[in-house]
Write a structure and sequence with these properties.
single chain, 517 residues, mainly alpha, Growth Hormone, Chain: A, 17 helices, TMEM180, MFS_trans_sf, membrane
Length: 517
């Protein structure tokens, strides 16, 4: 009886909750991966510097190319103007295809996560293979998960509703960062390895359960046209088949890229998002450095560790407040407000100077939280671009995963530019080269860096001043660039309403009915 009641309760969960839970099973793994994979290979497996940089270079190329590659492989069947084997593809069939893919790739992501924490090959080879394998499955999971956001829902209200639960479950998943500190021990790695096995097992089983629930709901909607069980969520009702588009044959990748090059809002968005990705990773890369050189005399090690941990959780909690604002004012207005807030806080910090420890502590933390939070909101903008791409090019089915992949292709170089440009600016202004001089042990960092010799008194203020100007001038520059590019983005307000209305009309004309979740 107890098992039957549990199954009935799970079947009664809202679709948005089941969809959002997938974010939990991703974040519990990925946050631990980000914090510990480098330290594991450097301090535990003793990888040499050459193998480390070769692995990171190959990973950079693979990380940039696999998004559009997997997106194209996933969506090319939806871009052909004639259905395969004479069978039509419905909106429900697209959703089912993505859910089935998540059901396979989610558990494989958990297995690839486990491959980091058990030595099974020479350190350099294992580092390269583990990074590429893990990132490959992570890309597949992210692409299908984000694409479902565009395929399950059409209205901005429904998409923010889905994204709300993603933020809620991502915040819960980020708690694995705090739990990991209790198990992390480089001298006795077995307890941390057991912790990772528990995380991977829970994540893999969670993916299997959540995708099975989603699949049963979508299949049930096909059997019952009225679909009362999904009506509360606004489920996918009715089984409508696609007919051919005006074009003949299948669209090639070259033709798709030409169409994308003419998509004006896409080009302005990726320009803005490239700066956003740069700023997010700049904050992550230099967070410990700013704590050390600007606040080490004013905060304890435990306070720094807490700031580092809370910076992973707070952006998701922050979005629980901003997503209702997106429903009321629109994503465009909220994102523009966050850019203005970033500019205003940075200018205020610049005027206040580096000798306000309380204000500095608040600014360093809030700068990372608001910047990361903005990244979470931009997923909603990409789903609107999916709608506009479908309408502009009269597609029979939205190429959701492919468009997310193309956005990632253009913006992921910001991950590389952030540490390169940041260290160059610091060296240019202060003469302090982080690669040639032993760095300070950063407050709250998981990586134990060797203690350097004390710098001459005359150099210390210069390095501190350089860190301060780097802290405030980078967000000022990013905010100005983003406000300009965002002002050129027109997919909001009346135009956004027109695109959504045209998508609905186009769907009816092609007998493809897209319902809201």
């Amino acid at each position: 009886m107890g098992l039957g009641r549990l199954q009935a309760w799970m079947l009664g969960l809202p679709t948005a909750v089941v969809y959002g839970s997938l974010a939990l099973f991703i974040s519990v793994l990925h946050n631990v991966f980000l914090l510990y994979y480098v330290d594991t290979f450097v301090s535990v497996y003793k990888i040499n510097k050459t193998a480390f940089w070769v692995g990171e270079t190959v990973f950079l190329l693979w990380n940039s190319l696999n998004d559009p590659l997997f997106g194209w492989l996933s969506d090319r069947q939806f871009l052909s103007s004639q259905p395969r084997s004479g069978a039509g593809l419905s909106s429900r069939a697209v959703v089912l295809a993505r859910v089935r893919a998540l059901g396979w790739h989610g558990p494989l992501l958990a297995l690839s996560f486990l491959a980091f924490w058990v030595p099974w090959a020479p350190a350099g080879l294992q580092f390269l293979l583990c990074l590429c394998l893990y990132d490959g499955f992570l890309t597949l999971v992210d692409l299908h998960h984000h694409a479902l956001l565009a395929d399950l829902a059409l209205s901005a209200h429904d998409r923010t509703h889905l994204n709300f639960y993603c933020s809620l479950f991502s915040a819960a998943g980020s708690l694995s960062v705090f739990a990991s500190y209790a198990f992390w021990n480089k001298e006795d790695f077995s307890s941390f390895r057991t912790f990772c096995v528990a995380l991977a097992t829970g994540s893999g089983l969670g993916f299997m359960g959540a995708t099975r629930l989603l699949r049963r709901r979508v299949e049930a909607a096909g059997r019952e046209p009225e679909c009362p069980a999904l009506a509360v969520d606004g489920g996918l009702c009715g089984e409508e088949l696609l007919v051919g588009c005006k074009e003949a044959g299948s669209i090639t990748l070259g033709q798709y890229l030409q169409q994308l090059a003419r998509h004006r809002n896409f080009l302005w968005f990726v320009g803005m998002d490239l700066v956003q990705v740069f700023h997010c990773h700049f904050n992550s890369n230099f967070f410990p450095l700013f704590l050390e050189h600007l606040l080490s005399d004013h905060i304890s090690l435990s306070t720094g560790s807490f700031l580092l941990g809370i910076s992973y959780v707070a952006p998701h909690l922050n979005n629980l407040y901003f997503l209702p604002l997106c429903r009321r004012w629109g994503v465009y207005a909220v994102v523009r407000g966050l850019f203005l807030l970033k500019l205003g806080l940075s200018l205020l910090m610049l005027l206040a100077g580096p000798d306000r420890p309380g204000l500095l502590c608040l600014f360093i933390a809030s700068n990372r939280v608001f910047t990361e939070g903005t990244c979470k909101l931009l997923t909603l903008v990409v789903t609107d671009l999916v709608d506009e791409d479908l309408v502009l090019n009269h597609r029979k089915q939205a190429a959701s995963a492919l468009l997310f992949g193309m956005v990632a292709l253009v913006t992921k170089p910001g991950q590389t530019f952030a540490p390169l440009l940041g260290t160059w600016l610091l060296c240019f202004y202060t003469g302090h080269d982080l690669f040639q001089q032993p760095p300070l042990a950063p407050v709250g960092s998981a990586q134990p860096w060797p203690e350097p010799p004390a710098p001459p008194p005359a150099q210390a203020p210069t390095l501190r001043q350089g860190c301060f100007y780097l802290l405030v001038l980078v967000p000022i520059t990013c905010a100005v660039l983003q406000l300009f590019t965002w002002s050129q983005f027109t997919l909001h307000g009346r135009r956004l309403h027109m695109v959504k209305a045209q998508r609905q009309n186009l769907s009816r004309a092609q007998t493809l009915e897209v319902k809201m979740v």
